[in-house]
Design brief:
Shape: globular
Order of helices and strands: HEEEHEHEEEH
Number of strands: 7
Largest sheet: 7 strands, mixed
Strand content: 25-35%
Helix content: 25-40%
CATH topology: Mago nashi protein
Oligomer: single chain
Length: about 170
């Protein structure tokens, strides 16, 4: 049991050092604003906003049930990224190639999005223009593994933050 704990600590320390090394070689020190949202029109929307000061906001809107319940059930949480989380997002954003992507994917030829899930991302790096990418769920095979990692990491982070119990002082 103790060997397992020591090994896990060693692995965690190694990952942290790799992230720091990667960030010292690229633009991880550069501030950014990043927005990730996932929406099914008229059903739900979840959104993650990361600001240059490392603060974040996570929001969930459940349009479908709110319509029947007659009241808003929005959930909003906020906090501050740890240095490791900020470095992870920055590294994933750099590797994703988002700046070289088109503005939209999966919308050609069909008028209605129906209940399809739509991913919307925006990235603003310090000193540059904002880049937007909108993806309909059926366009998943057109993306690099690094971009898919960014989507997965963003979704897991958002889910974890919305599921956290509030800290009572």
């Amino acid at each position: 049991m103790i060997k397992s704990i020591k090994r896990n600590r060693g692995i965690t320390a190694m990952i942290f050092l790799l992230l720091l090394a990667a960030c010292s070689k690229n633009s991880c020190e550069q501030q950014f604003s990043y927005t990730f949202s996932m929406e099914s029109i008229n059903n739900f929307r979840v959104e993650l906003l990361i600001h240059p000061d490392s603060s974040w906001q996570a929001v969930r809107h459940n349009f479908y049930f709110d319509r029947f319940g007659g009241a808003s059930s929005d959930l909003q949480k906020e906090g501050r990224l740890t240095a490791e989380e900020y470095a992870s997002f920055s590294m994933l954003l750099d590797r994703s190639g988002m700046k070289g992507m088109k503005e939209s994917y999966g919308f050609d030829g069909e008028e209605s999005t129906g209940n399809a899930i739509v991913y919307m991302l925006s990235l603003t790096r310090e000193g540059s223009d904002t880049h937007y990418v909108t993806i309909r769920e059926n366009a998943g095979d057109r993306f690099s593994n690094a971009f898919k990692e960014l989507i997965l990491f963003s979704g897991m982070f958002l889910n974890d933050k919305l599921a956290e119990e509030p800290v009572v002082p």
